[in-house]
Amino acid sequence: MSKAKTDQKPVSLQCAVLTISDTRQPDNDSSGDYLAQSVADAGHRCVQRTLSSGNLYELRKVFSDWIADANVQVILANGGTGYSRQKSTAAAVQPLLDAVITGFGELFRHLSYQDIGSSMLQSDAFAGTANNTLVFCLPGSTNACRTAWEGIIRDQLDSTHRPCNFGAGFHA
C-alpha cells in the first residue's frame, strides 16, 4: 500500500463538525473536540460546529444547511449510527446524498473489528457526497472517531496523498 506524497501544495479544507447526542454538551463533547482538533492538526479549518439531539428533521436541516453552504467542503458527524433508539443519522442524511462512498463503511467496520471484534456490526458508519460536499457519518465514541480519522479520513482529505484522495478535488 503506497502512502507516497507529491510535492503538490496541500489544500486546506473547510470542515464542519456535528455531534449527534442527547447527552453531550459543549463541555463534554470529547468526540467533537477530537474531530475539530484533528481537522486543525491536519491543516484544515473547522468553520462550523454544533450539537444536535438527533431529531430526524433537525438533523436534515443542519445537514441541508451545511451541504448548501459553499463555505463547507467536508462534514464530519459523529453519533446516531449505532443500533439504539436514537439511531437517526442514516435516515436523516442518506436521502440528501448524491452518491455513497460504499468502501468507507466497509473499511471502517474492518478497522473497527481489529479493536472491538464482532461489536463492529453495531456500526452503520457511512460516507457520501452531496452538492460537492464530502459527508462522513461516524459512531459517537471518541475511539471510533479516532479509528475513522486516523485509518481513513485524514489521508483522504490530504490532497498530496497518493495514489488518490478526495482532497485533490478541492482548490485552495
From TrEMBL:
Role of this protein: May be involved in the biosynthesis of molybdopterin.
Keyword Iron in record: no
CC per GO annotation: cytosol
A GO biological process held by the record: Mo-molybdopterin cofactor biosynthetic process
Lineage: Bacteria, Pseudomonadati, Pseudomonadota, Betaproteobacteria, Burkholderiales
Superkingdom assignment: Bacteria
Keyword hit for Glycosyltransferase: no
InterPro entries hit by this protein: MoaB (IPR012245), MoaB/Mog-like_dom_sf (IPR036425), MoaB/Mog_dom (IPR001453), MoaB_proteobac (IPR013484)
This protein's name: Molybdenum cofactor biosynthesis protein B
Similarity comment text for this entry: Belongs to the MoaB/Mog family.
Boundaries of every MoaB/Mog domain copy: 16-160
